[in-house]
């Protein structure tokens, strides 16, 4: 196996590009894919201040590392979700990454700062944990970025993630989500710009980036994800990809270029006002996150039995 660029010994193959790379040229390939994504979708300008949503997993740590490498001014924000050992460990990986490189890691902890955790919120709201978790992440990353004047929030969604989400949205013909499934969402009043610079890299490539750059990351997946349909969609696409490398990328990028513009890409047009409790944009008096905090911290909130939703 020879490197496509230098003909030296290759350490990894990337079947969808029909290429093998040595260590140095694989790292170049990853940087180039991120650079291309940022430029093609106009995600960031040179020197932008970027807040990276850091989970302690391979994607978010690779993203932080690559954005620094490309010269952006990046800080990480880690959100403690209170999901048992999984969260305890993920925090250690995020802190170790930052400490070893002298980087600033901001931290927000749902329990310490808001008095609840993801499993408790799931019980109190009788919804799946990912629902309270996703809402909390969106609210807290948005408000941290706005409060401190960041130019964008960057998340580590990779090609496999985005293709699986697209697959799910197509299976359900979810027109609203299809219209908004973009690698960049521009800033609008009350919301920061949101970007996904890793969409041109597959999961296996972000893992390889971390291994080659000696980045220790949390390998375990969140226990709350077990059995959710997103993982099933990923597996189904992997079966197809093995038979026909490049299908996943074509599915996602052809959608973005040719199909997405046919859907309504505007956000909900309901008039937004400020949450009376925290000031975030909301269609009612109180935003969804403040309602979640209120429900999840009510006395006896955790005694409600969990209801499993299967879609
Ligand atoms: S949403 Fe759901 Fe993830 Fe939150 S509860 Fe775990 S699986 S961490 S990306
Ligand atoms: Zn090479
Ligand atoms: Zn609020």
How is this structure best summarized?
With 311 residues, the protein is α/β, with parallel strands linked by helices. The chain has helices at 23-40, 58-69, 84-101, 110-114, 118-125, 129-147, 159-171, 175-180, 203-212, 229-243, 247-259, 288-297, and strands at residues 12-14, 19-21, 49-54, 73-80, 105-109, 152-154, 184-185, 193-195, 273-274, 281-282. Helix content is 47%, strand content 12%.
Characterization of the model:
This protein is an alpha/beta fold and 311 residues long. Helices cover 47% and strands 12% of the residues. It contains twelve helices and ten strands. It has helices at 23-40, 58-69, 84-101, 110-114, 118-125, 129-147, 159-171, 175-180, 203-212, 229-243, 247-259, 288-297, and strands spanning 12-14, 19-21, 49-54, 73-80, 105-109, 152-154, 184-185, 193-195, 273-274, 281-282. The strands form three sheets. It has a six-stranded mixed beta sheet with strand order 5-4-3-6-8-7, with helices on both faces. A hairpin with a 7-residue loop joins strand 7 and strand 8 (193-195). Helix 5 (118-125) crosses helix 6 and helix 7 (159-171) packs across helix 10. The chain is globular and about 65 Å long. The protein starts with 11 loop residues before the first strand and ends in a 14-residue tail after the last helix. Bound molecules: Fe4 H S5 and zinc ion (ZN) (2 copies). The site of one zinc ion has 7 residues, from helix 1.
């Amino acid at each position: 196996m020879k490197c496509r660029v230098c003909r030296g010994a290759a350490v990894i193959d990337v079947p969808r590009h029909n290429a093998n790379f040595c260590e140095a040229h694989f790292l170049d390939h990853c940087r180039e894919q991120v650079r291309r994504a940022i430029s093609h979708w106009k995600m960031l300008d040179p020197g932008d201040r970027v807040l990276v949503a850091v989970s302690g997993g391979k994607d978010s740590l690779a993203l932080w590392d690559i954005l620094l490498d490309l010269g952006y001014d990046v800080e990480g924000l880690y959100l403690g979700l209170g999901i048992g050992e999984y969260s305890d460990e993920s925090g250690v990986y995020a802190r170790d990454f930052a400490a070893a490189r002298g980087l600033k890691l901001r931290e927000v902890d749902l329990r310490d700062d808001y008095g609840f955790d993801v499993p408790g919120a799931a019980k109190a709201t009788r919804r799946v944990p990912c629902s309270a978790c996703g809402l909390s992440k969106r609210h807290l990353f948005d408000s941290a970025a706005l409060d401190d004047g960041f130019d964008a929030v960057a998340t580590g969604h990779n090609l496999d993630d985005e293709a699986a989400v697209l697959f799910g949205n197509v299976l359900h013909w979810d027109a609203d989500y299809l219209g908004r499934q973009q690698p960049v969402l521009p800033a609008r009043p009350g919301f920061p710009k949101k970007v996904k610079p890793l969409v041109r890299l597959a999961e296996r490539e972000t893992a390889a980036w971390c291994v080659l750059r000696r980045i220790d990351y949390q390998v375990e997946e969140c226990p709350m994800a077990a059995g959710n349909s997103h993982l099933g969609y990923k597996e189904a696409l992997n079966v197809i990809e093995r038979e026909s490398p490049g299908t996943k990328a074509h599915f996602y990028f052809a959608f973005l270029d040719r199909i997405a513009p046919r859907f309504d890409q505007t956000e909900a047009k309901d008039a937004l006002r400020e949450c009376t409790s925290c000031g975030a944009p909301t269609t009612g008096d109180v935003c969804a996150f403040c309602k979640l905090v209120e429900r999840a911290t009510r006395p006896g909130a955790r005694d409600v039995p969990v209801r499993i939703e299967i879609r």
